[in-house]
Design a protein that fits this description.
Length: 163
């Protein structure tokens, strides 16, 4: 396809080189994750009462003002939740990387999850694999805890917080 358009002169093996393989796995991971995020945010936006928009429209609020003062504050909890879930899913992305590159070329796409799998399954070091898995769970749990602590601090500083 890229040759037909004129972007490339010859076929290019994206998964054969370190940088292009890494970028190909990122693009694929984003491609797979975007629909979930889109549907989640669409559901959040559809849950906002139309009465709020009508009242703001009657008061003469512009579209940007309605988005900034109604839509955005009401979907921020959904955005925060989706950001956390997306970060965890990306960190634990095994299937995409394994199918595309198995952690190669020369370890360019090897993540903690891929390395743990190779250690436990390919090298038959089940104890070390289990220990690595526990470390991954502790890391993600710590990340989630820090994330929620930062969100609670931001919520306390927010001018929209009436409590």
């Amino acid at each position: 396809m890229a040759q037909r358009i004129g972007i490339l002169d010859a076929p290019f093996e994206f998964l054969a080189y370190k940088n292009s393989a890494f970028m190909a796995t990122i693009v694929t991971d984003v491609w797979i994750g975007v629909p979930m995020v889109t549907l989640y945010l669409l559901a959040a936006m559809q849950s906002i009462s139309k009465d709020l928009y009508e009242a703001a429209w009657v008061d003469g609020a512009s579209r940007f003002y309605r988005f900034r003062r109604i839509t955005l504050p009401l979907i921020i909890p959904s955005i925060a939740t989706m950001a956390l879930l997306s970060a965890i899913a990306t960190f634990n992305s095994f299937d995409i990387i394994w199918i595309l590159t198995e952690g190669g070329p020369r370890g360019a796409t090897t993540t903690m999850i891929i390395d743990t799998y190779k250690t436990a399954i390919s090298r038959f070091k089940y104890g070390e694999g289990a220990a690595r898995t526990v470390m991954i769970v502790l890391f993600l749990g710590s990340f989630t805890l820090v994330y929620f602590m930062l969100l609670s601090r931001l919520a306390k500083r927010s001018p929209n917080n009436a409590a």
